[in-house]
Amino acid sequence: MHEQSLLNDLDHVLITAEEIDLAVTRLGKEITKEFMNLNPVFICILKGASVFFTDLMRKVDLPLTTDFMAISSYGSSTKTSGVVRILKDLDHDILGKDVLVVEDIVDSGLTLSYIKKVLFERGARSIRIATLLDKPARRKIELEVDYACFTIPNEFVVGYGLDYQEKYRNLPFVGVLHPRIYTEEE
Ligand code: 5GP
């Protein structure tokens, strides 16, 4: 491992690139069946879901459109405050559309329950949620997660799109950040 390797900052690898690939392929097949004839809109929640989103949509063999939304939640970087703000809104109307919201991780559930409410208010016909990772033990609000590739324990993870202070998104797998990294910076 070279000096600058991101691996130096990890405690351990939680989910390998191969495991992710298998799970995303499986989910793509399931979504292909379930969204048959619906011409869905896939909405990517930036930036964390970007890697999962682009991999997942290439495993779905259906006509679909894509749109992107960026959300910010205030608060310290390893905890979610529940206060949500739209930083970048959708480019297209979703009135009457069947929507799949694609997220990196569901933690408290506050971000997605807010997004779901906003999309319903705009007249979406149906809204389903696909997440790469689910931390059900941390839920603060009831939220139906339709598709989750992996259920994980309550540890702070990075990689495959997920960041810590904008770093680590380019790791091809999901790893647990060494606590040294965020305690050093507090
Ligand atoms: P929720 O509103 O469900 O609590 O928060 C979801 C958001 O919190 C995610 O989109 C992500 O930005 C952030 N988050 C929650 N847990 C983790 C984690 O373990 N690692 C990273 N990198 N972000 C997380």
Index terms:
binds guanosine-5'-monophosphate, globular, 9 strands, alpha/beta, 186 residues, 4 helices, three-stranded antiparallel beta sheet
What does this structure look like?
It is built from four helices and nine strands, in the order βαβαβββαββββα. By secondary structure, it is of the alpha/beta class. The chain has a single domain (18-153), classed as Rossmann fold. The strands form two sheets. It has a six-stranded mixed β-sheet, with helices on both faces. Strands 1-9-8 form a three-stranded antiparallel β-sheet. It is globular and about 50 Å long. Bound molecules: guanosine-5'-monophosphate (5GP). Guanosine-5'-monophosphate binds at residues 48, 80, 103-111, 156-158, 162-164.
